[in-house]
Amino acid sequence: MTMSEDPNRWEDVYRNKEEAETSWHEARPKVLLDLIAETGVRTDAAIVDVGGGSSRLVDCLLEQGFRRITVLDLSETALAKARARLPKDVPVEWVVGNVLHSKPSGRFDIWHDRAAFHFLTDAADQESYLRVMDRALVPGGHAIIGTFALDGPSTCSGLPVARYDAARLSERLGDGYRLIRTLNHEHPIPWDSVQRFHFGLFRKV
Question: What confidence tens digit (pLDDT) does each residue in 140-160 have?
Fold first, then answer.
């Protein structure tokens, strides 16, 4: 198990920090919502947020009427924080687990990840991840992958990360995915700085 897969590491982060103190916090993840809207999916689409933690994306999707949402994360504490914000009867499946070993109960129209893939610096782990994603996505489904950009940080939470632009990410996903949209985004972090991200929207062919 690599450090990026260690659930205790992320349990400590979520136990010891308030939500707004984490570098990845966004009150409203507009970039992600815009990319999901660009796919044209209806509110009955199945969406998985990989490494979702306590992200507010699930809140926003519920506000928009989506009703088949899965949030997967290594940290039970992070998911508990998200659950605590929301009514108990929301149509969300909360899954504590490692995406590399995930066996989803169903298939998804949208696979979203802005938190996990860039922590995979080993080629074998990347391949395992992409196999899981490919099995989970329906034909014609969309993958939205957010990573640190080439000029973004080389580490996060003390861990090394892999950085991407459109060309590198497209090459990594392979011929089975067609790039629909690429964009760079400067994400503000609590200590008066920014982290540079790259987002790719892909369609499974």
Answer: 999 999 999 999 999 988 889
